[in-house]
Amino acid sequence: ARRGVSRRGGGEERAPPVRNSREPTGAAAAMASDGGDAPVAMQAQRASAPLPQPGRVKNKAPAAVQITAEQIVREASAQQEATYRAPAQKITDQAELDDYRMEQRKHFEDNVRRERWKLVTWMKYAKWEAQQGDYRRARSVWERALEVDHRHPPLWINYAEMEMRAHAINHARNVWDRAVTVLPRIDQLWYKYVHMEEMLENVPAARAVFERWMRWEPDEQAWRAYINMELRYKEYDNARNIYEQMCAVIPSTKTFVSFAKFETKFGTRDAARGVYEHAVQTLAEEEHAEREELFLRFADFEERCKEYERCRAIYRLALELLPKSESKTLYDRYTSFEKQRGDRKGIESVVVAKRRQQYEAAVAASPTNYDAWFDYVRLEEGAEEESITFDDFVARVRETYERAVANVPPAQEKRYWRRYMYLWINYALFEELVVDDIGRAREVYAAALKLVPHRAFTFGKLWILAAKLELRALDLGAFRRTMGRAIGLAPKRKVFKAYIDIEMQLGQVDRCRTLFGKRLEWAPGDCGAWTDFAELEASLGEAERARAIFELAVDQPVLDAPEAVWKAYIDFEIAEGEYVRTRALYERLLSKTQHVKVWLSYALFEMNVPLPSEEAEGGLAAHQGVSADDVRTVAQSERVAAARRVFRRAEEGFKKSAAGAAEGEAATTNEERVALLEAWLDAERAWGELGDAASIEGKMPRRVKRKRQLYTEAGDKAGFEEYYDYVFPDEGGAAGGLKILEAAYRWKRKRAELEERKAAGTSEEGGNPAGAAGDAGALPPPALDGGEGSALPPPALDDGDGGALPPPDL
Fold first, then answer.
1. What pTM, to 2 d.p., does this model score?
2. SS3 content of the chain, % helix, strand, coil (to 5)
3. CA angle (120 as vertex; 118, 121 as ends), nearest 5
């Protein structure tokens, strides 16, 4: 018990004393006080009495004397009362012995009669009879017990051991024989039986027991016990026969390896090799978890025998037969073997095998990972030296390709099929270039074209390669049939172009024209088709046909790139020397669009076009009495004048467009005008003496930053945005606000200069600053020109309430 004192607020509180556990409490105390005469009152008091509350410990500090758990246990054990022990009995004569035996037999008989199913009681009864030396009664008890439960192995074991201790060998043998007959799957009975016969040195009887046992096909341990017995007596032939029976009954890696070790130790290497070969034939094709261990043991055996080629062949056979998930250790051992015993070719084969394992794992994890399939196929195509024959190499590559193309993309979307189609293409190229089998390559292309859903999408490259294969096979008809099928089933620009190129190379112009007609019927808005058709006719010298084609092209209502057609048409006329037609084309194009690039191209044409005087017969020498320089100068002046006319027209057009356009369109037009002026300025500078760069520089605008109102889709105001615009010198009305600002800047500079002069005069003469200021007078506000030469008053700024604000302090 522990008592503590806690001081709080100047007072003391003592913990309640701990009650002795031996003192009566509650109902017991009440009974003791009443003398045990009032049980009813005691029960009522017990029901009404509240449960005792544990005392609160105020002081939780450790006690001065600590009690350990060991002291508590010792005290408890010391207080325990001594257990009762029966007194020892001493038997002095036969009569007492008979009475004792009678009493014990009666006790055992009563027990087995009450608990007949309790075999422990029967065994105690039988053992007691055996201790008394009455084996007849003991055997009777054992037999009675076996009638209760003959499937209890300890009952047979104890029965037979009793007979063995009594040296009743025949009785014991009969018991063991009955036991293994009733319970043949209990290995302990067989082991005990064999052990007894071997202790009696009756080896034939022990062998007979083993043979009888082996007919039940027990586990491996029983077979090994039989083999060990034969080895103890050096009966190696019998042991070999037992090994053969065991391997037939239990075909496992462990049994075959044990048999091989036995042959290595007691037989020959050829016999051990035969055991391993039989094991490979038996287990290699089965799904067995220890196949890798078998091949490793076989390879180690051949390596110990210094048969390195055999060892290498075993490793390769194992790598071919076993799945990659079961051969990681095998790959490591093979790599180590090749590094120690092999050459460069062997090491490379190991690396190839290891990479093959990695690719197998990758494609097994994701069958539609076509990048992994590409790497795998590339590996197999580069491993030709690893294969024994070329046919084996081709078979392996074909198998890989077939496995790869069997993984069709799950969705009919072209982006999923692009990588997949290249597997088919590579497959066909392998058959054509490596195997040189045109027929099989044709079959590959046919299978690929049959697999593609042409109504949803198609692959022009696949059609072209399939057709060109027929062309390389010197079958022009098959080529045209394939291309015609492609155009009829899934026309594409690439297919048309390839077909036309091949026919053009063959000199079939009429076919090319027909194909161009089909292409334009399929896509009349394809500018590339029109230009290619016209270029074909121009290359054949058919200028009128080419011109007619161009005219049809520019008259089309919808074109995907009309500027390309116009450019090709203009280039064609320039190449033909039809400069008048070229100018007419430029005028027609400018009637459709006023783009700055068209104007610049027109001006460039005028700058470089030959004049009629230069095209006359004899050239410059035809002008008698005029020097070549003068003729060249006159021609250049005419070209400059024509180009200037184009530039002026373009500038006037942009000026009118900007004047009548909205705010955003005007900014775009101004940018095009600036680009035009920059090109014009460069041209004037390039013309040298004939140029007038100063006048163009006066036309160059100034770049300013402006703001414009933004609106939402609903039409509400959404703030302002800043943008850059150009202010041209000839835009007087539009730059009125800027002129006011410039005048304000000039007025501020003059005022600052006046104040500086005034300050300098004051410091030199020492005069009155106020007087000096009064003599100088105030600087009047600047007179601003409003565009008509009239002076404008300073602008009045509104403060927002309708009142005018004073001029700003600039």
1. 0.54
2. 70, 5, 30
3. 75
